[in-house]
Design goal:
Beta-Lactamase; single chain; binds adenosine-5'-triphosphate; five-stranded antiparallel β-sheet; Rossmann fold; 25 helices
Length: about 625
């Protein structure tokens, strides 16, 4: 093994610009350690294990990934345990959230940092496989004195990234040995094993998350098509790519000569842009067909084998077929549990004439959902949205109910059909219903009970047939208690409630961001890219104005973009503002009241754990 001193001298020579025979990823990482993280090669630092409480938080956040990845990890561990490898699954911040190793060596492994809770981010540990993999997004071997810190130069570590279906790096799988042969080539098999395990974890994750989409599996050879494909793509009902196994598809894209194209750029594209097929061809690729018929030609000519799996809702439960979500409701989310529940309930309610109250913070998409329910219910009439807070109080009555010619001073000579009548045969959407004056609440109640409307000044009522959806960001039950909202109207409007999650609690924020950007691209007739830092800033903001705020921020960013690149400079400054100090103190106190248990606090405040973690992170 090399001496500590000669290792330090080598790093110093590289720092001076000397040419080195080491692999490029190693040299790039050494330079980052020196220049970006200002690490000193002469200062050795033992491996860092995060405190128990922190580890619990990291594990809680990675809970689903650990569950999905477990069987792949166990299979891999069984293959490598004989050679005294240990296996580490780290999160995107480099903290080991799952670990498998031989308990006989527990003490040595813990000291070396090959243990649950060890943090292998590059800025803390210097060049290491997990850290270099997080930065580059590529599989990597960091063998013995490739490590920057002399404390780690005995180890050999091989890591590969795990991406979520939208291309964000969510975890790194690493296998390491305390002692290994000197030749780095001895780790090539390890590299192959971790890369194929991450490919399988990504596939399992895609299958779990895209139950409402088609999945197209791709393989270079027919034997592996159904058992261990090279990559998989999820497609929505119109044939657009909604997700993929990024590691596997990246490798396929390279063999299709698509070098330098980020796999994320394929999201939202019609499948016909990449392959010689259309959405209607998908059933042709389903299992049971001879492999010869399941050939798929890429646009560049490469021929692959493809196997299609229809949306799982109709496949997995043939006995009680779940209706596929109507198109308009299907596109509201992608992988957010709370939204999936809202969508499923909305689809069932849309089919019946049941009044629905939609609750949610401002900008969380209440009107968007109401419109989707209207579009799904098949009523031929209009969707008429009335914002009860925006119409001046003295006009609400005439706007809603209409009036007869000359009904009051200033009224039009021709009279006016009210919005309620406009909506007859369709949907009346009463937004901010909590702001409707009490007197009008009684008249509205009569319309709903008797299915007729009496315009101002009219002697006779006219029949109407309405579906009523209403929304409020205020707690209507509370307004009823305070006597500011009629209880009977509340029950009439609120046969069922749908509550939209706020944006900061959504698990599919990255997907929403891409959706909104696609919409802006269409409006502007131009495509955009968001760089890593800007994307991270967008993903970590709290979004008090929810989807409206995000959509506006992206519109401004697109306008400010140099060419097609959206970077930090294009984002509104308030995105980087810190929360008020008073809020921070309150949060600390609330956490301490809950015995420093994040889950308990999240339950108490009615938000996701990730929201609390994000705020705590900002508090440091
Ligand atoms: N699921 C979605 N996908 C894409 N865009 C959405 C989605 N939901 C809402 N939006 C967009 O977000 C913005 C705000 O949505 P919307 O007006 O429906 O919110 P709201 O909750 O009704 O707001 P408010 O409380 O102010 O009335 C709109 O521009 C809408 O197009």
């Amino acid at each position: 093994m090399v001496s500590t001193l000669s290792h330090i001298r080598e790093i110093e020579r590289v720092a001076m610009g000397a040419v080195s025979p080491r692999d490029a990823p190693v040299i790039q990482s050494w330079l980052r350690c020196l220049h970006d993280y200002k690490l000193d090669p002469t200062v050795a630092q033992e491996a860092y294990i995060v405190p128990e409480v922190k580890l619990r938080e990291h594990r809680e956040q990675a809970e689903e990934l650990i569950r999905i990845g477990r069987s792949g990890l166990e299979t891999l561990f069984n293959q490598i345990a004989e050679q005294n490898y240990v296996l580490l699954l780290s999160d995107a911040r480099g903290v080991t959230v799952d670990f498998m190793g031989d308990p006989t060596f527990d003490n040595q492994l813990r000291r070396a940092g090959l243990y649950l809770g060890s943090e292998w981010s590059e800025n803390r540990a210097g060049t290491c496989a997990v850290g270099a993999c997080i930065v580059s997004g590529e599989p990597v071997i960091i063998h013995q004195d490739d490590h920057f810190d002399t404390s780690h130069i005995g180890l050999t570590c091989t890591a590969a990234p795990v991406f979520d279906t939208l291309g964000a790096l969510t975890a790194v799988l690493d296998i390491s040995q305390l002692r290994s042969p000197t030749a780095k080539a001895s780790q090539q098999l390890a590299l192959h094993l971790v890369a194929s395990t991450t490919r399988r974890i990504e596939l399992a994750n895609l299958m779990t998350r895209t139950r409402n989409d088609w999945v197209l599996r791709l393989a270079r050879s027919p034997e592996f098509l159904d058992v261990d494909p090279d990559a998989a793509i999820a497609l929505d009902g119109s044939g657009r790519i909604t997700g993929m196994t990024h590691g596997g598809f990246g490798a396929l894209a390279r063999s299709m000569n698509m070098h330098g194209v980020a796999t994320r750029d394929f999201l939202g594209q019609p499948i016909s842009e990449v392959f010689d097929m259309d959405v209607d061809d998908l059933p042709r690729f389903m299992r049971g067909r001879p492999n010869g018929e399941r050939l798929l030609r890429a646009r560049n000519g490469l021929v692959l084998f493809a196997s299609a799996i229809a949306p799982a809702v109709s496949i997995r439960a043939p006995a009680v077929p779940e209706p596929r979500l109507p198109r308009a409701l299907r596109d509201l989310s992608n992988g957010d549990t709370a939204m999936e529940r809202v969508q499923a309930r909305a689809a069932k309610l849309a089919a019946r004439d049941i009044p629905i109250l939609i609750q949610g913070e401002t900008g969380s998409g209440k009107e968007f959902l109401a419109r989707a329910i209207h579009d799904s219910c098949g009523n031929p009439g209009n969707f008429v949205a009335v914002n009860c807070a925006a119409i001046p109080e003295h006009l609400i009555e005439s706007e809603l109910f209409g009036y007869t010619p000359g009904a009051f001073t200033g009224a039009s000579q021709k009279g006016k059909r009210g919005l309620i009548e406009e909506a007859s045969g369709g949907t009346l959407f009463l937004d901010e219903i909590g702001d409707m004056p009490l007197a009008l609440q009684s008249r509205l109640l009569r319309v709903l009970s008797e299915n007729e409307v009496q315009p101002v000044g009219a002697l006779k009522a006219r029949a109407v047939r309405l579906r009523v959806l209403s929304a409020s960001h205020r707690d209507l039950a509370e307004l009823v208690k305070e006597g500011r909202f009629r209880q009977d109207l509340y029950y009439r409007l609120n046969a069922a409630t749908l509550t939209l999650p706020s944006l900061r609690d959504r698990q599919d924020l990255g997907w929403l961001l891409d959706q909104l950007l696609r919409r802006i691209e269409k409006e502007n007739g131009q495509t955009y890219r968001i760089d890593k830092a800007a994307r991270a800033a967008l993903l970590s903001h709290d979004w008090p104005g929810n989807l409206r705020e995000l959509s506006n921020a992206l519109r401004v960013a697109a306008a400010l973009a140099e060419g097609d690149l959206i970077d930090l400079d294009c984002l509104p400054e308030h995105l980087f503002a810190e929360p008020a100090a008073q809020d921070d103190d309150e949060l600390r106190r609330a956490l301490s009241d809950c015995g420093n248990n994040v889950s308990a606090l999240a339950r108490k405040l009615g938000v996701n754990r990730s929201t609390i973690h994000r705020r705590l992170k900002r508090l440091n």
